[in-house]
Design goal:
By secondary structure, the chain is α/β, with parallel strands linked by helices. Helices cover about 45% and strands about 25% of the residues. The chain is built from 29 helices and 35 strands. The protein has a six-stranded parallel beta sheet with strand order 2-1-3-4-5-13. The protein has a five-stranded antiparallel beta sheet with strand order 17-16-20-19-18, sandwiched between helices. It is flat, with a radius of gyration of 49 Å. The chain starts with a helix and ends with a strand.
């Protein structure tokens, strides 16, 4: 029995060792998958290209801080994208020609290259990126330091634009100044000309609600003037420095902290500011806008966008400057002006802080604390190890008891018998199933078997005894428990030898539930067969030679075949003759390339020769070393007819568009031509393939392309169909004037999708109109030379035109007489006669009339004129008249 226990303990240790190896393998596999994924992720991000476009020179400290913040989030991380940096230097150069040269420089430098993102610092670079992003591959734009975002994006579609605005909080800084210096009588704001307009509105608005404090806003680019102005102020004055750029008395540039440092040396008044680069150079502090923080924010946004490949970034994300603003102060100046720490905002940042003993030696204190903690941990670990060693020793001494417990706790039944079947040892699982331990021991195992099973088991025992060591024999038998229930067992038998005799180890388990499961599985197969034959789709099973070996009832219902007409025949025999070559090519691909799944459409023949269109999906599997192909077909004959009818309608629409007299094209939201008709191709003298798939920049010269794009933007901004006049230049140089109706297309979310344009040639009509206008001008010039007054009447006898000569006689402007009945201008004595005269004119008694009439001037005097009038009729209906008035 001891050898048996030793053998089982050894087996248990081997099992534990195998489990440990398997656990280590799983950890290694998990580490390999993570490493592979990380490597792929790193390679993907490392291939990204980012252009950092600075508005100003890096000498400008604000720009340097923004760039440092951006690079800390992009370049200092791993993996990191490829970084390219360009500086516009717009503080010194910002002419139109310079910007054009700068654009051409970048175009030639990066010709043929595309960027995955542009990061623009400050307004000039942001505007430049919006205008020129197409030459960099139309990447997303990220920005920081932009003061006038809403103004900058006017005229552009802010698509894929992300960033943080620069909004200095002048109001909060002014409030903080008054809180720290409550006896202040006046606040002087100083700034340079470049920043004057930007800060003035905030500065003035603050004092609308603080009228008890005097305010002055002083603007100059010359540092000496700023110093003299500050020194001229009384002692109860505070200074808010908003200077971003100034010059000294010799005209040399002073940028960043340079002017502030010089200013603070020469004035004694308290100075506050709003930029982080002013800290440490003479300002007490303020609500600070940090270029570094602005750069970090936009750098994080760009890095996250590139990491996620733009997924979830369809809408623009614009953050306010509050993300990068914070209160900050210089401790040296706080002490100089006797300002206490408790007077400051609770989250203030302090520079030039003088450390106390604990702050000065914090690193040493922390180091020794960590060492002490580590020593305590080591001591604790040693104590734990000693306790564990003691427990392991106790466990080792109780190993036999635990091994017995393991055997008794096993769900499998374990029995040791001799060569005659007498039971020598059993675990508790065996005892609980049949009887208690005393009833089982000294009994023959064969007694628990059914009578017809005993002979077979005797043969098994003989084979085990005669077999070599470690040979294992599987067996299955049925037994009855003490309650009379029949249970199915499966197990293994193995010979155990010691120096005296041989024993047989039996391990077996109850498989009654598994047998029930097999029966249930058979029932499921029957249910599957029922489903197979009643599904609405056609289901076929093919062998490796593509012969039909099984089909469901839907096939016989739709196609009318019988089983003997279908089974063991090639599937290709039922394919429509025009599709058989296609079917053969699919079979060859499946055989040669090992493709397991196919999805395609094909036509098949029913029993009556009718043709049906099927949507087919196939899957290949290996079952019992045999290849089977499952084919699921859906009858789409009716759907196909509908699709063909739709295609026919589409063709008819294309024919209609091709034969309309106008010029028609459609561009998608990226400005790429998707459809053009023949007339448009003929107008440009280009082949359709030269236009479709290209943009205006690839078809026209730069000026014409930008003009076309600007017209498109006008239509998109209007948001509805409208007419506009355009010019097209043919390849031969001829200019064609067209009247164009542009219709912007939006989806249900009002997001722009494309634009349709329909144009008609109005060149000749325009020429004729210009000739008419020129004739009209000459006609009016001729009238001005006449001494007589020329006039026209409409169909109601009212003046529709009267020449300026009437002013010379009456001192009345012609426009005052328009739309007035001509008889109403005469004297009361003449009015009735003139009205009767007009009635005869309406009757068409004659065409020419000569009569006298008076017209009242501005002095209420009547001037006598002789009128000569020629009436115009159409189908005997009076349409108006033309005439002259001659002063008598």
């Amino acid at each position: 029995m001891n050898s048996y226990l030793i053998h089982k303990i050894s087996s248990f240790k081997k099992l534990s060792h195998c489990f440990e190896i398997f656990k280590r393998f799983l950890l290694f596999l998990l580490f390999f998958v993570i490493l592979t994924h990380s490597s792929a992720y790193s390679q993907g991000l490392s291939a990204k290209r980012v252009l950092i476009l600075n508005s100003y020179s890096p000498d400008y400290i604000w720009t340097a801080e923004e760039q440092r913040g951006i690079l800390s989030e992009l370049e200092d991380k791993s993996p990191s994208p490829q970084i390219f940096i360009e500086n516009m230097d717009a503080k010194r150069f910002y002419s139109k020609s310079y910007l054009e040269d700068f654009s051409n420089f970048l175009f030639n430098k990066y010709k043929g290259q595309k960027f995955d993102a542009i990061v623009a610092t400050d307004d000039p670079a942001f505007l430049f990126a919006l205008e020129k992003r197409d030459q960099f591959g139309n990447p997303p734009i990220f920005f920081c330091g932009v003061n006038t975002y809403e103004t900058d994006v006017k005229g552009f579609i802010p698509d894929r634009v992300y960033g943080v605005k620069e909004e200095e909080d002048v109001g909060q800084t002014l409030s903080l100044m008054l809180k720290l210096f409550p006896k202040t009588k006046k606040i002087l704001g100083i700034t340079d000309k470049g920043a004057a307009t930007y800060f003035k509105k905030q500065f003035d608005n603050f004092f609308l609600s603080h009228k008890g404090v005097l305010s002055e806003y002083f603007v100059s680019d010359e540092l000496d003037k700023l110093v003299n102005k500050v020194n001229s102020e009384p002692n109860d004055t505070l200074v808010l420095d908003l200077v971003t750029h100034s010059v000294d008395r010799y005209g040399s540039d002073l940028i960043g902290s340079a002017p502030l440092g010089k200013l603070s040396q020469e004035v004694k008044l308290p100075i506050f500011g709003t930029f982080d680069y002013q800290l440490g150079y003479g300002i007490i502090g303020g609500i600070i806008t940090s270029g570094t923080e602005q750069g970090k924010i936009v750098g994080k946004m760009a890095y996250k966008y590139l990491s996620e490949n733009g997924s979830g970034w369809e809408d623009s994300k614009i953050l306010s400057s509050s993300e990068s603003n914070y209160p900050a102060f210089d401790e040296n100046l706080l002490k100089r002006f006797n300002i206490k720490r408790y007077q400051l905002p609770p989250d203030s940042k302090i520079i030039n802080h003088h450390e106390n003993f604990f702050e000065r030696h914090a690193r040493v204190i922390i180091y020794f604390s960590i060492v002490a903690l580590l020593l305590s941990l080591v001591i604790g670990l040693l104590v734990i190890v000693l306790i564990q060693k003691r427990r392991e020793y106790e466990k080792l001494s109780d190993s036999e008891k635990y091994f017995r417990l393991l055997l008794d706790s096993s769900s499998d039944m374990i029995v040791v018998i001799d060569e005659n079947g007498e039971i020598l040892f059993e675990n508790d699982s065996m005892a609980m199933l049949f009887s208690d331990k005393n009833d089982i021991e000294a009994k023959n195992f064969l007694n628990f078997l059914e009578k017809d099973e005993r002979d077979k088991f005797r043969v098994l025992l003989e084979k085990v005894i005669l077999a070599e060591k470690d040979s294992i024999f599987a067996f299955k038998f049925y037994v009855k428990t003490k309650s009379g229930a029949q249970i199915v067992f499966e197990g293994k038998a193995k010979k155990i030898s010691d120096y005296k005799e041989d024993f047989i180890l039996l391990t077996f388990s109850d498989v009654t539930d598994r047998e029930r499961l097999h029966r249930a599985l058979k029932e499921r197969e029957e249910e599957y067969s029922l489903l197979f034959n009643n599904i609405n789709d056609i289901v076929l099973v093919l062998d490796s030679e593509y012969k039909i070996i099984r089909a469901n009832g839907e096939l016989f219902r739709l196609f009318g075949y019988k089983e003997d007409e279908l089974y063991n025949r090639q599937i290709i025999d039922f394919v429509y003759f025009e599709d058989r070559e296609y079917a053969k090519s699919l079979i060859e691909r499946a055989q040669n390339e090992g493709i397991k799944r196919f999805s395609f459409e094909i036509r098949a023949i029913d029993i009556n020769g009718g043709v049906r269109t099927l949507d087919v999906k196939t899957t290949s599997i290996i079952k019992d070393s045999k290849k089977l192909i499952f084919v699921v077909c859906r009858d789409i004959t009716e759907r196909k007819k509908i699709e063909d009818a739709f295609i026919q309608k589409q063709m008819e629409l294309n024919v209609l568009l091709e034969n309309l007299p106008g010029y028609i094209y459609y561009k998608n939201k990226d400005g790429i031509y998707v459809f053009v008709n023949n007339n448009f191709c003929n107008l440009l003298g280009m082949d359709r393939r030269r236009i479709i798939g290209h943009t205006d920049y690839e078809i026209y010269n730069k000026d014409e392309a930008e003009r076309n794009i600007e017209l498109d933007r006008s239509a998109i901004k209007l948001g509805m169909a409208h007419f506009q006049e355009e010019e097209f230049r043919k390849l031969n140089g001829d200019v064609v004037i067209v009247l164009t109706q542009k219709v912007p297309i939006f989806d249900e979310k009002r997001e722009f999708q494309g634009i349709i344009s329909l144009s008609y040639d109005i060149t000749e009509l325009k020429t004729a109109y210009d000739l008419v206008e020129k004739g009209k001008e000459k006609y009016l010039e001729l009238i001005q030379l006449l001494r007589d007054v020329v006039f026209e009447l409409d169909y109601s006898g009212r003046f529709s035109f009267i020449s300026d000569r009437i002013f010379d006689y009456t001192n009345i402007q012609p426009k005052e007489l328009l739309n007035k009945f001509f008889a109403d201008l005469s004297s009361p004595d003449e009015k009735e006669d003139l009205t009767l005269l007009f009635m005869s004119i309406l009757r068409g008694e004659r065409k020419r009339y000569v009569f006298k009439m008076s017209i009242r001037n501005y002095k209420d005097e009547y001037i006598l004129f002789e009128a000569n009038l020629l009436a115009k009729y159409e189908n005997n209906i009076f349409k108006g008249a033309t005439g002259v008035l001659r002063k008598i």
